[in-house]
Specification:
Layout lengths: L6 H16 L3 E6 L2 H15 L4 E4 L11 H13 L4 E5 H9 L3 H4 L2 H4 L2 E6 L6 H17 L3 E5 L30 H7 L13 H8 L12 H14 L1
Parallel strand pairs: 1-3, 1-4, 2-3, 4-5
């Protein structure tokens, strides 16, 4: 589904409904980048309340919290993931699943019997993708978890991405995951592309002069500064 199509809320809605139906104890959302974790956690907190959502990633510094009782509570929560909804990074999730360190393993019993949805599988290096997917399959088969992989693009599990036969490779050639993609593209269309050809700085500045807002992407900071200076001079 394209950016802005509602994947975050749609995945949360499914996870809540599925967890209630199957008696899962919590929901774990694993995301690749801390900036997206912050954004996703903010949405979940707005919907479910701040006390029900634990945000756990490397940028969370519990030592900066002034309230010592709250700091200790946060540290314990990040160690055992006992919160109803955990928003974390792929690194935190898979380090907990593969690590032999006691501090990392204290949350394993709370990962069991959880509804988990993980985004952007394509951000995991292909060399690490197989063990990660095999671990997720283990959670499903033996530990009562449900795993949902959310992505804006086709997953890297296509068998064409593997040099030889792999147990995690899927025959996705010619298979569209979304129903009626043409209709979906029409309904979510926000941009019309027109090729204007090569333009000098002066022509580009003139074209943008009557626009309330514009975005220009160039190849270098120097070029960006030149355009900015020309626009400022014209204004």
């Amino acid at each position: 589904m394209p950016t802005g199509g509602g994947k975050t809320l749609a995945s949360l809605g499914f996870a809540l409904d599925h967890a209630r139906r199957h008696g899962h104890s919590r929901i774990i959302a694993a995301i690749p980048f801390t900036s997206i974790v912050d954004q996703t956690a903010a949405i979940f907190k707005h919907v479910l309340g701040e006390d029900n959502v634990l945000e756990h990633h490397s940028s969370i510094d519990d030592e900066k919290q002034a309230n010592r009782d709250w700091r200790d509570k946060l540290k314990l929560a990040m160690e055992d993931w006992a919160a109803p909804l955990v928003v974390t990074t792929n690194v935190q999730l898979f380090e907990s699943l593969f690590s032999s360190r006691p501090s990392r393993c204290r949350k394993l019993h709370n990962i069991a019997a959880a509804s988990s949805f993980s985004t952007r599988r394509k951000t995991i290096p292909l060399a690490l993708l197989a063990p990660c997917v095999r671990m997720l399959a283990e959670l499903v088969r033996f530990y009562g978890c449900t795993i949902v992989l959310c992505t804006a693009t086709q997953p890297a599990l296509d068998q064409r991405n593997f040099l030889k036969a792999s147990p995690i490779a899927l025959p996705l050639t010619g298979r569209e995951l979304a129903p009626d993609p043409a209709r979906l593209a029409r309904e979510l269309k926000r941009v019309t592309l027109r090729f204007a050809g090569a333009m000098a700085n002066a022509d580009l500045v003139a074209a943008l002069a009557n626009e309330a807002q514009g975005l220009v992407i160039v190849n270098s900071r120097r070029h960006a500064l030149e355009l900015y200076t020309d626009m400022k001079r014209r204004a």
